[in-house]
Design goal:
By secondary structure, the protein is an alpha/beta fold. 38% of the residues lie in helices and 14% in strands. It is globular.
């Protein structure tokens, strides 16, 4: 699979997804959105990939936000001449179900949220706008000590996108989310760590190695399907109305997993004091989870 605005490199179980627009500080475009989604589809279907790490090309920027080359009309998507036509009717009413209305950053966030593999961010430089919000659904964020975060939307006459109004307060608390989004100020990697936005800060030359080490720590000794399911259970339970929802979901998943080969191997390898060899496939043995995605046991 070939890409133009990202790079995807796989090595020893780790997929490194690099945002690659050197001339534009890796600024986000619709094409980049499509390529990120396609790359995550590819990684989910590849059982050799245990985790995905996002980073940006170079040391200056992870992603400088949306590409602003269209000037004042950058965010007026109705003027971009999309082949699907305008969502605005002649009488001024808007078709809110139209594809042009859907936030592109949100499509990336939702795809990261839906990933079956752990997703980590190695934030190597400026992470502004969508460059910041796309990192929020990731399972861990490590930053270079030269990185800067900025939720600058209000300064551009916009509002936070990419479902960040859901993710950001859960990561940093409502008071910090309000501060960051109202002011739109840039914060250092150190302040981002202090607020809980990133887990650790590293010298630029050590960042990728640290992210790979973290990814391996998360996945090397765990069953891939168990990690995939646990990822969804933890994230989705953040919105559950009562712990009974978690109990019902836990019960179903433990029952289903307990009948499979991974649970038997996990126990046997522990008793035999050896490294487990898990055989269940995220790509092939995952369909039974689909019923939980659309109808979580909330009631």
């Amino acid at each position: 699979m070939s890409f133009e605005q990202i790079r995807l490199d796989k090595h020893e179980g780790i997929a490194l997804l690099t945002l690659y627009r050197p001339e534009r500080m890796n600024a986000f475009t619709a094409q980049m959105m499509d390529e990120i989604i396609a790359a995550l589809d590819d990684c989910d279907a590849d059982d050799a990939v245990r985790a995905v790490i996002f980073t940006g090309h170079g040391e200056k920027a992870y992603c400088a936000g949306a590409d602003l080359s269209a000037g004042a009309s950058t965010f007026d998507y109705d003027k971009h001449g999309d082949t699907s036509g305008s969502p605005v009717a002649e009488d001024g009413t808007i078709d809110w179900s139209h594809p042009l209305v859907q936030d592109g950053g949100g499509r990336v966030s939702m795809r990261i949220f839906a990933a079956k593999k752990p997703v980590l961010g190695a934030i190597n430089g400026a992470a502004v706008g969508i460059g910041a919000t796309m990192t929020l659904p990731m399972d861990a964020r490590l930053a270079s000590d030269t990185a800067r975060y900025g939720f600058v939307f209000a300064r551009r006459g916009l509002v936070p996108e990419a479902a960040s109004s859901w993710f950001l307060p859960r990561l940093v608390g409502i008071a910090n989310a309000v501060d960051l989004c109202y002011s739109g100020r840039l914060i250092s990697a150190a302040e981002a760590q202090e607020k809980g936005l990133v887990q650790s800060v590293h010298a630029p030359g050590a960042l990728i190695d640290a992210a790979i080490a973290k990814a391996r720590e998360m996945t090397d000794h765990s069953a891939p399907v168990s990690v995939a399911l646990t990822r969804h259970m933890l994230w989705r339970m953040l919105g559950a109305p009562h712990p009974i929802s978690a109990h019902r979901w836990d019960s179903r998943v433990i029952f289903a997993r307990g009948r499979g080969p991974d649970a038997a191997e996990g126990v046997t390898s522990f008793l035999e004091k050896r490294t487990p060899h898990f055989t269940a496939s995220v790509a092939d043995d995952y369909p039974w989870f689909d019923e939980f995605e659309d109808t979580p046991p909330y009631s």
